[in-house]
Write a structure and sequence with these properties.
Length: 79
């Protein structure tokens, strides 16, 4: 049987917010789906700065602008 319920994580435990009609000690499989912008914001904060130092950004920009000045393959320049 599959059933979706709302629950809250409190003091290290997932607590159902509605009656789940289970017997004491019965095991269940839990799939988490996190909701809300607060969760998204926390994920963004956790990853902030993760790429720092992984590339030379000035060199990247230089290469990018140089590539934009070069004609695309198959195009001709009019003089």
């Amino acid at each position: 049987m599959v059933r979706t319920i709302r629950a809250k994580f409190t003091n290290g435990k997932i607590e159902p917010l509605e009656n789940v009609d289970l017997e004491e000690g019965e095991e269940v499989l839990v799939t988490l789906e996190l909701e809300g912008t607060a969760t998204s914001r926390k994920a963004l904060v956790r990853t902030a700065g993760a790429w720092k130092g992984s590339i030379d950004f000035d060199a990247y920009l230089k290469d990018l602008y140089a590539a934009r000045r070069e004609p695309s393959p198959g195009t001709t320049l009019n003089s």
